[in-house]
Sequence to fold (261 residues):
Amino acid sequence: MTKRKTVGLALGGGAARGIAHIGVLKALTQAHIPIDFLAGTSSGSLIAACYAAGMPVEYMIERALQTHWRLLTRLSLQKTGLSSGEKLSAFLHSLLDHKHFADLQIPLAVVTTDLYSGEAYLIQSGEVEVAVRASCSVPGIFPPVSLHGKLLVDGGLVNNVPVDVVRQMGADIVIGVDVNEYSDSSQNLDNLFTIVLRSLNILMQQHVRRVLQEADVVLLPPAARFSPLDLNHVAEMVALGEEAARAAIPQIQQLLASDQP
Fold:
């Protein structure tokens, strides 16, 4: 019996735009595309973690629709950030409930950045919510997370769509998903959070485009037509992710059927 090729999914960061990843997962699941490995950065790490933990896609959509997202970024000046991050931590706990990486149904890697070394730091053990909290820690907004002798912040600084990570995990076919492409330059940059996120996006995108060249399949749901803080278009962003994934399903199926390594 021929061994099936393995599939890995690399989900990029993008704040609220990461909701589009749920649509990607919905389309792949409905098409019975297997997902054997997951890696994620920032909001992509949250969606990847929820899916790896066995959370149904429809429930993920329901939670996204019900969550008051702005409460997660309520600003209150701290020594190491404009928000304490406590509400974000509580939200992550409500979803992941102290689950450890060893409890997950699908192998997961969470990408963070170590401020001491300036390099990517992968987390694949311990409590998942702690890893995701670190990967979502936008510098200057949320305080860094101290873990394993490192000071960790948003993984997007060094690897926003971790295609290489999924490949190293053992995936034969790597699908990279970037939700920040096609950004609308006319978006309102009317608060510190949007300015910080836009600045980081400018710094990241050239690296992301190079990294995506190493993916077997690239999905670019145009979620960047929405602000990274746009919390009122969950259904639309899910639909964009679903549409992008559905368009790529024939390509993915062909790769799965191919005899080429």
Notes: The chain has a mean pLDDT of 88. The chain has one domain: 7-257. The two ends are 16 Å apart (CA to CA).
